[in-house]
Specification:
single chain, 453 residues, alpha/beta, five-stranded antiparallel sheet, four-stranded parallel sheet, 13 helices
Amino acid sequence: MPPRRLTLALLLLCLALPGRIFAADASPSGYVDWERQVAVGVGAAPVRQNAAGASQARAMAQRAAMLDARRNLLEVVGQVRVDSVSVVQNFMAVSDRVTTTVQGLLAGATVAAERLRPDGTYEVTLTVPLSGPLTQELLAAGPPAGAPPQAAAGSEAALANRLAQAEAQETLVSNHAARLEIRVASLERSAPDQAAGTHAAALAAADAALANRILQLESRVALLAGRMARLEARVAALERRAPAGPAAGEQGPAPAATDAALANRLAQLESRIALLAGQAARLETRVSALERNAPAATQAAAPGTADPAQAAPPASPAGAPQAPADASPAPAAAPAGQIPAGLVQAFTGLVVDARGTEFAPSLKPGLFAGKEQLYPGPAVDQSLAVRRGVVRYYRDLAKAQQSREVGASPKTVKAASGSPGALDLDPADAALLRAVLAQPGNFLDQCKVVVVF
């Protein structure tokens, strides 16, 4: 065949093939559609005309194309990235359960399309979902959500990372309690100056409620002080541990037992801090209601508008964290680095713009602030992560912001940098996520996160 005719024939063949084959993130044998959360495998086989008949030749080609598509689909699924360091194939090599799940998915793969190509070959396209059973087995086989990707759950490095997160959470709740103390003190000082008469009964009830709230605050601050002391003791215990392995003649399991004990105590501490954060959030709502119902005199006496000397909070128990002198209850005047609770509660989901970074999608991507993993955290709803995915992916920012996965009022942040399976956030965005995690039933724990890549 003359060269010009050969070139023309090849060009016509290329135009006849599906456009997705030549996409940057696809190949002729298959690809991953991250927006639909499915893996796609494409198989092809020639229709041999020397068979008994045309229908039999087509059926034989269809079966051969199906087998080819399954082989290609297995290869595609094996290369699906799970997190920043692993792919599905790594899990299959060490977990029979993951291997069995993948084989079951391939056996039940959905035929998305089949056709006879112009070149006489039969093509079959198969798809399998990435969420559901596969995600469930991968989450069960991998490290717990929130654990550093390169450290085992019980290792010293993992404990140190969790300890740093617990300290940050405790500090956030402690600052929240300190600001609430100032606001309650302002309401308390304004109560004797309010009008008498018809408001007498209401004032008496308000005074009793304020006294009760102050007692609760004092108790919670005392708990915070105790928790901080225990945190310091754990840090000291970690620092005293020798970095080298056991000396000759010593028993090896002892460090592992110590790690397990520390991990158990730290898990209890994390649960108590989360409970305290929920109490602080509920108290924030009640104090805000008091401030909204207070007369103008109360607003005039609010911290930040009155003499700072008169805005001193009530005495706290010994060892309790002290409120900063310039703290302000108003969300617009919150100190730098502190996120008002009202602002946190206004958001219904998170949209992370990862375009322009080196990020590549994965089943369990991590959101980081330096070495601290903010998402997914230890309290993430595993059932939702399995059913809907740890995150959902979009190519278009506007569609991501309007998706039902993030609700009506999502917060959009721009990733500072990215790598395959991991995104690093700016300090201000990281502070917001920490404040969100302090709220019970927050949207992060409910997997309301989408990533635009």
